[in-house]
Fold this protein.
Amino acid sequence: MVEGLRQVCKNYTMDPSMAAFNDVRSPDKFDNAYFNNILKGLGLLASDYLLGVDPRTRPIVEQYAKDEKVFFLGFFKCNGEGFYVWCQDWS
């Protein structure tokens, strides 16, 4: 996965249409796949790994991975109701 991203991103300064996704399972869907990926060791960044192993954040990662509705509620609580309305229209 990392090598694939390196290939896609190698000409990022010359190709403005370049796009890369850190969630290959559902790149065009707003879901909790990111948290499932962390638990499977598929995070791309060191911070992804740390979220999965730090005892302060792992319970949150596990909860969001297990229950997508809980993730949505947490996300929208942090980002405001206006974003929730926008996401409903977008999905």
Remarks:
- The two ends are 26 Å apart (CA to CA).
- Residues 2-90 form a domain with the Peroxidase; domain 2 fold (CATH 1.10.420.10).
- The chain has one domain: 2-90.
